[in-house]
Specification:
Blueprint: H1 2-8, H2 16-37, H3 46-62, H4 70-92, H5 100-117, H6 122-127, H7 130-136, E1 137-141, E2 150-155, H8 156-171, H9 176-197, H10 204-214, H11 223-246
Helix pairs in contact: 2-4, 2-8, 2-9, 3-4, 4-8, 5-10, 5-11, 8-9, 8-10, 9-10
Length: about 250
């Protein structure tokens, strides 16, 4: 689909706003459908993940991901979807109770807001490096552009999180279709906020809390998990506040 869109892009008269909407929707759909297709994987499957990562490094070494190279963008897309979805699936296998998604939601919110909004965060740094950005973000051709232009949309962390949420739902008997609908809704809301503010925003908080919203079981921590979770999250928040304060 990416290759076909790249071929058609210069010949489709689409306003930049609608081109962004189409690209974001296409990348979101590929991310969620890949997560739905990915089976729960054991830890030994990490070997396959490492191979996918090696393939991504090879793409970089060959220079296929630079500029508007469509072949490079296609290879990066396949490598990211395969590798990151496998990582998310393996991590989901280690989530012992659906209530642990409440902890995941808080952690994702802290980490992703720092990564995006703080200049010392990984996302902020990656955005400044065009080559690195082309390796860790799912791309899509910009429709309506006079020349074939590949734009980055969602990052590798978003792919991992999507596969994690779907994997946990599958493992613990939560409604997978409802999970997918929540993820699509969160991505649509993220897109709307980006269009309104014209500012990059973290995606993971929207995704995490959308999943919590549709699954009551994900909002209930087991009694034996509450105290360790509270202590751990308080510690994480203190570390988060310190890093944010001294990284400015």
């Amino acid at each position: 689909m990416l290759v076909l869109a790249a071929v058609a892009a210069p010949h489709v008269p689409v306003a930049p706003l609608f081109a962004f909407v189409i690209g974001f929707a296409a990348v979101s759909a590929s991310m969620v459908t890949t997560a739905l297709a990915a089976p729960l994987l054991p830890r030994k499957a990490l070997a396959g993940v490492l191979l996918a990562i090696a393939a991504l490094v090879l793409v970089y070494a060959l220079g296929l991901s630079r500029g508007s190279n469509v072949a490079g963008a296609a290879v990066v897309t396949c490598a990211l979807l395969l590798g990151a979805s496998c990582v998310g699936s393996v991590v989901a296998g280690g989530v012992e109770d659906p209530g642990h998604l409440l902890i995941v939601a808080v952690v994702f919110t802290l980490v992703d807001t720092f990564s995006v909004f703080n200049q010392a965060g990984p996302t902020a740094a990656i955005v400044e490096n065009e080559t690195l950005l082309s390796l860790v973000a799912l791309p899509w051709p910009q429709l309506g552009a006079r020349t074939t232009t590949i734009e980055p949309f969602l990052g590798m962390g978003d792919v991992i999180a999507t596969a994690l949420f779907v994997g946990v739902a599958r493992r613990h008997g939560l409604h997978v279709g409802r999970t997918a609908a929540a993820l699509f809704g969160a991505l649509a809301l993220t897109m709307a906020v980006v269009l309104l503010t014209e500012t990059p925003i973290p995606v993971l908080p929207f995704m995490a809390f959308a999943v919590l919203l549709v699954h009551p079981a994900a909002r209930r921590l087991r009694k034996e998990d509450r105290r360790p979770a509270l202590i751990g999250l308080l510690g994480l928040m203190l570390v988060y506040a310190a890093i944010w304060r001294f990284s400015k």
